[in-house]
Amino acid sequence: MIKQEPDKKLIEKVILLFNEKKYLEALDLSNKIINEYPNSILINNILGVIHTELKNYTLARDLFIKVVNLNPKYNDGFYNLANIYNKLGEEDNAIKNYEKVVELDKSYYKAYNNLGNIFRKRNLNKKALEYYILTLSINPNYIRGFYNLAGVLQHYILDEKNKYINKFLLYLLEKKIIVRPNAIATNVINGLFLNTNVKDNFSLLENNIYPKNFNKIIELLNENKLLLQFMKVCPIPNYYFEKNLKKIRNEILNQIYNLNFKKIYLKFLISLSAQCFLNEYVYYETDEEKFKINRINERITNNINTKEINDLEILILSCYSPLYSFDWCKKINPSSQLEETFILQYRNYNEEKKYTQKIKSISEINDKISIKVKNQYEENPYPRWTNLGLSIEPRVIKEVIEDINLDIDLKKLHFSKNVEILIAGCGTGQHAITTASKYKNVKIFALDLSFNSLAYAKRKAEELNCKNINFIQGDLLDLKKLDKKFDIIESVGVLHHMADPLAGWECLTDCLKKDALMLIGLYSEKARDNIASIRKKINSLRIKTTKKNIINFRKDIFENNITTWDSIKYSPDFYSISGVRDLLFHVQEHRFTIKKIKSHINKLGLVFLGFEETYVLDQYKKIYNQKKDLYDLDKWEDFESNNPRIFSGMYQFWCKKI
Ligand SMILES: C[S@@+](CC[C@H](N)C(=O)[O-])C[C@H]1O[C@@H](n2cnc3c(N)ncnc32)[C@H](O)[C@@H]1O
Description:
4 domains, 54% helix, alpha/beta, Rossmann fold
């Protein structure tokens, strides 16, 4: 009988060549084998995989079709075929074949994941979410599935109970580099409301017997892992939570002031302390609370050398002021249960202080506005982030650029071997570290006015083992002192804080190589209409920028229910001191229109290449479906007129120097 499949050893040889990325040799050998075994499922399949790698997609498709015809029960064959249809843009055929895969094997999680991707691309987020949940419930270690889930959760509002989702949300909040907690905060809140008893638990704070039931409430909340983790990773952007957490903080203070050291408070306090630290103590404090804090502080100060201090006393104070602000803190040898809080509120602070001394400076800051802006960010580095969303793996620049769909001929795009990227106004490092994770083999220069922001950025870069960023202090107006021309410059949320944004933009353009790319982020006049009116009111009331005024201003907005300003309550920035300062109390803010951007681009000898944000682009494409429309700023202007809030996350666009 004629053998249908070749010798195992031959197959292994092809696989070895393939794994060593010797695709042409693998192809050669496979072609030889297939001549002898034309109906071998294995070799047809491998040949399909090789052609996929070589981007010969139609050849690959035909091979996989042959494979599944030879064996209609071969799920890997259907999976490969589905992937090829996906690459060829034949999504309906891809869906059919992924469905065939899961019909043959219900636990084939990658097929569910890819179905999720197709539905996400089609903006069918609910369906995509269902598939990602299915993927992760089969394989809870599939990291790519978590990235996809995080992606869809940023544009879909959870609206029904789900027994899995809170577990996955918890995982996303525990991981340092999958997603910015703020980006999924609304859904974490929804997940808490829909799938936990948090509302019932908080409602006990209003019960007639309160505070007799207080310990019970803490016990119940301690069981809510998602809530406790959420409190540790970002300011919770919701006043309902703020109101209740404030009340709990107050009652634990009462208990501890009265020397009632209940062990159950510990776990909750660790989270509450992190939450208060992250929001930079934005919660309003009563005079009675101030008095009690002072007394506990005195108690600790008096006892520090002679008696053991109860951890709960330390923790409750850290819910009102950072640990580093207490003189006695350096004398404490923290117990293991205090370690997390000590790292967050004491060790990190000291580490940043050390980094501040080490950061190199390119210039004295002379510009009057730059001095004011610097002072603001020295006092309140912004944003104070914990986790962020990095790329799964770095890729060569061209591949990354290809994905953004810019108005550019990729064949004419050339990058030198030593690509250098400037992040101008890098703040606390989120942007620079994210960019560093995207591109392979690049060197990043990250410049900012504020030493304290840079120190925060540097500490986080070290924590994430991000080695290719060089942090520099200085004014971007003095960039020529760096004596460098960059391959890419990115500056998001910076130019609109300068006295003359066009002058700043010109300095950036001067440091860009010819034909090189620039990413700019600017505030939109239309999208920030409401913020502009609040800023105007603050100015007319001559409210000085102090922490106390910011706290009182917020209290006023929440308690007096000024409905015209309601929308501000939905901004995550409204839930931390540095956020409110950046949002409403900034020393300098310009806002732009698309017309103005167009005129600046022309003046600077740049060419507009397209907007960055996928969500915005998807909305635009629903109305303007020609590729060239994507680069037509006049059409974008019309689009924004009809969707005034669309650029609430700033205009973020690419341009090129000609
Ligand atoms: C709103 S933060 C944005 C930070 C960062 N780009 C991000 O997206 O996370 C603005 C930053 O720009 C910096 N900045 C403003 N004017 C600058 C200037 N003239 N030169 C350098 N940095 C500047 C500020 O110090 C601040 O850290």
